[in-house]
Amino acid sequence: MAKLQDYLSEKYQGLTATEEIERRLLELSSLFEISQQLNQSLDLERILNTVLLIPMGRLLIPRGVIFLKKSDGFRILMAKGLKPALTSFTLPEAELKNCISQSKKPVLQLNDIPSPVLKSFAQDAGLEICIPFISNQQVLGMVLFSKKLNGHNFSPEELNFLSSLANIAATSIQNALQVEEIREINQRLDEKIHQLNTLFDIDRGLSSTLDFNEILRLLGLVLMGQMKVTRYGILLKREKGFKLYQYKGISPSEIGPLEKRLRKISAPNQAVRIESLLDNDIIAQCHQQQLEVCIPMVHQNELLGYIFLGKKAGGETYDSTDLEFLTTLVSQAVISLENARMFQETLEKQRLEEELNVARTIQKKLLPHQLPNIPGYEVSGMNIPSKQVGGDYYDVIPLGSHTVALAIGDVAGKGVPAALLMANLQAALRIVLKFNPSPQQIISQLNNLICENTDRDKFITFFLAILNTREHTLTYVNAGHNYPILVTSTGTIQTLEEGGLILGVVPDYPYQSSTIQLKKGDLLYCYTDGVTEAVNHEGEEFGEELLLRLLNRFHKLPLTQSLEKIWQKIVAYSSGIPQADDVTMLAIKRNG
Amino acid sequence: MSNFEISREDNKEITVLKLHGYLDAHTAREFEQSLANVIKEQRFKIVVSLENLKYISSAGLGVFMGFIEEVRKKGGDIKIAQPSPKVYKVFDLLGFPNLYEFYDQLETALKAFEKTQQPGK
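YS: structure for the whole thing
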C-alpha cells in the first residue's frame, strides 16, 4: 500500500494519495456502472443517453453531442446543452474517411480534428474534444464534449476515462444498431405479411361476389384502409371515354376534364406517382384534385380503366413497395371484375333466352292449331318463328254459317312485348268480330283500342277479310300490311291494297274497305314480311317477284303443299342464315 | 355465415358502436352501413369499441378512413377503444395511431369527448 501511495503521489503531484485513490475508484466504478448499464440495454436511445450523461455528471461537462453514421453521413442522434439550430448538422462521411484511423490518439483535441467541417462545427458549438466510437475498425460515430464547467483542462486520467467509456459504448452501440436493424427488418416483414394477408383477404372478398359494383366498392375500402387515403376515384373506360364509377372525397362534377384527357395518354404498365405520367394536363388536373398515384387497370393487355389515390393521411409519400403492392392488388381486383362482367353477360343471355321461350310459347298458343273446314274452299296457314320471335299472327275464325274471318298481322318489335301485344290484338279481334260484321268498323275499333293501349312506337300491320262462302265475296281492309296476292286460275295477279294506315298510330283514322269476287281456282295468298325480306348470303332479299313466280308455279298443287314448297324455297334461298323475322303465310283457294 | 355483429349504444351525444367478431372484406359493408346511418342522423361523436373484435383487415380499416374527414369537418371524431393487442398491431403497422385516438378503456374514450369541445385535430 505504501508503495502504491508513493507511486501515486509521485504521479499526481499536489494531491494526496488517498484523494487520488478515491478519485480513481470513482472513475472505475463509473466505468463499471456504465458498462453494466450499457450491456444490459439494447435500446439505442438509452445507451446514448448514458454515454452523454455519466461523463457530464462525473466530469462536470455542460455540453455533449453524439454523432452516428447513417446512410447520408454522420448525424446528430443525441445532444445535450447544444443550441437547437445546430442539431440538424450532418457531417458527410467522406470528411472522416481515414482521418480518425490515421490519428492514433483515442481522444482528439479540437486542433487534432482532421476534418475542417467538423472542426468548424465543434468551434461553433463550443466543443473541445472528440472521441470516436470504433468497432471492428469501423467508425460508428463519435461523441464530442465541451470544456469542463470549471474551465479546467481534462486531465490525462479523465481523458483515459472518456476513452475507456467510448470503447465500452462502441460495442453496445454496435449491438443496439444491429437490434434496431433486425427490428426494422421485422417491421418490414410484418408489413409484407400484412400486405399478403390483405391480398388474400381481398381475394376471398372479391371472389365471394359477382356483383361488379360491389367489387369496386370493396376495392375502394381496401385502398383507403391499406394506404390511409380519404380520397380515391375509379374511372372505367367506356365507349366515349373514361367515366368515374366509384369514388370518395372527389367531386364528380370536377372530374370531367380528367375523364376526357385520359383518352389521350397511353397507360403506364404499373402503379406510378402522378408526376411520372407523361402529360402535363393530367398532372395539373390530378394536382388540382389532390391525387398522387395512378394505377392502371389492365386485363390481358386491355386497359379497362384507372384508379387514382389521394395523399396518405399520415403525410407519408408512396414508396416503391406501396406502388408494387397497389399494382398487385389492382391486377387481382381486375380479374374479379372481369369475372363479374362475364357472369352478368351470361346471366343476361340466359334471361333473354328464357324471355324468348316465353314469347315463343305465347305466340304458339295464340296461333290456330287447326284451321276450320270451309265448304268449297281450301285453307292453309303456316308460321315459323325466328330466333328472336317476331310478333306475327294469323287466324281463321268462322262467324256464321257462311261467313269466315281471315286475319294476318305483324306486331312491331320482338320477344315478349311483341307477343303480349299480339295476344291483346287476338283477344280484341275475337270479341269485336262477334258484334260487328263490317271489316271497316272492326279495323277502326281495333285501331283505336291499340292507340289507347300502347305507345306510339308500338304498331301493327294488319289485314282483315270477311269471306262470304255463299256469295263468294271477300270484303277486306288492309291496314298497312304487305299486299295479299290474288292469283286467278288463268295466272292473272291482283294485290289487295285498299285500307289505310298501320294500326295503333292515328286514332279515328278513316279506314276504307273493298270487296272482290272470288272465282273457281282463285287463290288468295297472304304473308308477312318475313317471306319477302328473307335474305341470302349476299344480303339480297327474297323479294316479291320470286314469290309471284312461285305462286304461279305451285298454283295447281294442293294449298298446304304449295305453302310448304314456298317455305322450302325460302329456306334454300337463305341457306342457314339466321333470319330476323317470323315467316307467316295464310292462303285460301276456291275449289267448288 | 357472417361472424360479425355490431351493436349500438347512444350515450347522450356520443354514439358507441361495438364490433364483434371478424371485420374483413366480407363484413366491412355492414360496418360501413352502420357508420353511415349514425352520421346520417347528424351524430358525429363516435366511439368504436373493439373489445370483442377478433380480426380486422384493410377493408375494415378503409371504413374508418372513409368517414373521418366528414366527421371531423362537422366537429366530431371517431375514437377507437379497447383494441386487442392483435388488432391494435394491424392499426399500428399501417400508422393509424398517428391519425386516430386510441383508448384502452371505453370510459376514457367517452371522457375524451368532454375535454375537446372543439373539433378534433
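YS: worth flagging: The mean pLDDT of chain B is 88.
IM: good catch. Also Chain B has one domain: 4-111.
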